[in-house]
Amino acid sequence: MKSLLVFGGNGFLGKRICQTAIEHGFKVTSLTRSGKPPRPMISSEKDWISEVNWRQCDVFDVNGYNEYLQDATNVVHSIGILLEDSSYKQKLKSNEPFKMSSPQWGNNPLKKDSKFTYEMMNKQSALKIAEELAKIPVAAEKRTFTYISADRGFPLVYSGYITSKREAEMGLMRLEEKLRPIIMRPGFMFDEVVAASKGGKDLRTAFKTVFDTFNFANRLILRNKLGFVNELIRPTVSTQQVSRAVIAKIEDPTFSGVCPLDEILDV
């Protein structure tokens, strides 16, 4: 059976990658800090959740996950942060107003976790896993390593976010002789199930509505003719669509390298 090991498998995107992989006949193991499965949003999600092997590990402790790498033919890194402040993830799950200027969203150097940085979470965690995977000899075709990168940076988000993503990409491509790197560059993501269940009132869907409105206006009024506007206003994409693209690229033995947002949307 095809196997898939997902780091961050109970996260916002990671759980959808696990779901799509199960639906495509993969044997799936998820490794996360808690080791717990995600809470089902609808009753039907209990079926695929029960089929995933949920396990706990510290992504920075090689000894904690090396045994899982041995038999993994495909590995996905779905760990990353948008801000160097862990509280923002809880805010995105709530219905509270999102105010980047508020002190609660800022970085408090006295409370900052040395591991919760762009350098560590977005870059070093991925490179360390990939380097360990590359050490394992393979008799048949190369193992795949899929990295969830990003299409662009986001307004009001520090430049270190996209810099760490691009540096991780370059490091992964240097392992191309031993692995088949797959680099996904989605834009702003929302979840179709969450959007439907909450009636579009959750924070991510609210952001999606704003971004989609700007994107529609760009197409209708400007006809996508201004390059700098096209660079700023990008389409949103669902976690389900990104997950389908991830599995499609894994199952395509001829693909390696970068899968841009436009290609993700076409899968």
From TrEMBL:
Pfam families named among the record's database cross-references: Epimerase (PF01370)
Domain named NAD-dependent epimerase/dehydratase: residues: 5-78
Protein name per its UniProtKB record: LAMI_0G06326g1_1
A GO molecular-function annotation: protein-containing complex binding
SUPFAM superfamilies the record matches: NAD(P)-binding Rossmann-fold domains
Highest taxon listed in the record's lineage: Eukaryota
Gene Ontology CC terms: mitochondrion
InterPro entries: ComplexI_NDUFA9_subunit, Epimerase_deHydtase, NAD(P)-bd_dom_sf
